[in-house]
Amino acid sequence: MVSIAKLALALSVVAAATVGRAEEKSVRIVVWDERQPKQQQMYKNFLGNHIAEYLRKQGGFSVQSGGMDDPQQGLTDELLDNCDVLIWWGHVRQGEISVGKSRGIVERIKAGKLCMITLHSAHWSTPFMVAMEERTKQDALAKLPANERAKAKVEWVGSSARKAPKRDAKLTPSVSYEKQPDGSTLVRIVRPNCCFPEYAAHGKPSKVKTLLRRHPIARGLPAEFTLGQTEMYSEPFHVPAPDAVVFEETWEAGQRFRSGAIWSLGKGKVFYFRPGHETFNVFHQPEPLKIVSNASLWLAGQKGRAKKRTR
């Protein structure tokens, strides 16, 4: 006859194994946030922690938080190597993250080890800018015949300075090709600016239209919803053409923006979600939070897949 002690031990082993399997299946998320003090006007424990707490309550996610003032800026190799989806919020301290550290993130994306969600003002975060440069290079080389691609030389034009383009500025990125005397092709790439000519932190409402109703990121979202208080960004957005645009945002004054865009990068993906500003209540509304949750779940399932159209 089995003793009560042995039965209890057996049950505990089974329970531990069950928990272990559940944790293995969980989507591993790191929410990175520069934790700007102004955020606490609207998000008492910072915006990134607010999003992380929401995701923990959804089930199916294993969530950690990181920040600029943590050891190694909250971006240790151990943390990144055990992450499926990196969610990034940055604003006034973008330049403190080095290109070298950002390349490590982007190389993980390209290898299919990681996907990234970039939120609002993090369009100028160093990881997003490096990712957009890599996507531009990927697109530029893809236009060459396979036998020319390996010998092609890439020359970057312009700097990565964070300065908004003028309304009449030539759209970036742009690419030109020039045959060299040795038979190779010189590929000149004007860097993507990763910004737009008009913005206003006025807190006026916007309407968000779901363009791709059947996309998993749009699951459970209405055809249109209103953000009661947000910052305005206006096209053109100086980035490489996305593979898909899930949401479009408009304002009463006529501005519009591609507010939910997806890019494949090697075997990984990047999703940019525009709404925000750290002193507005955007991420107290259910729709933006659900979009981040949906995107995290979908991106985790896309890791390691070869580039393909997402429409």
What would your notes on this structure say?
This protein is α/β, with parallel strands linked by helices and 311 residues long. It has a single domain, classed as Rossmann fold. Helix 4 links the parallel strand 3 and strand 4. The C terminus is likely disordered.
Features:
311 residues, nine-stranded mixed beta sheet, globular
Going by CATH, the homologous superfamily would be Class I glutamine amidotransferase (GATase) domain
Strand order of the largest sheet: 2-1-3-4-14-13-12-9-10
Write the CATH fold name: Rossmann fold
Low-pLDDT regions? 5-23, 307-311
By DSSP, the count of extended strands is 14
List the helices and strands and how they pair.
Elements: H1 4-25, E1 27-33, H2 47-58, E2 61-67, H3 77-81, E3 85-89, H4 99-110, E4 115-119, H5 126-142, H6 146-149, E5 153-157, E6 174-179, E7 185-190, E8 198-200, E9 206-210, E10 224-227, E11 232-234, E12 244-250, E13 256-265, E14 268-273, H7 286-302
Parallel strand pairs: 1-2, 1-3, 3-4, 4-14, 5-7
Antiparallel strand pairs: 6-7, 8-11, 9-10, 9-12, 12-13, 13-14
Question: Nutshell version of this structure?
Answer:
The protein has a single domain (12-131, 197-302), classed as 3-Layer(aba) Sandwich (Rossmann fold), CATH 3.40.50.880.
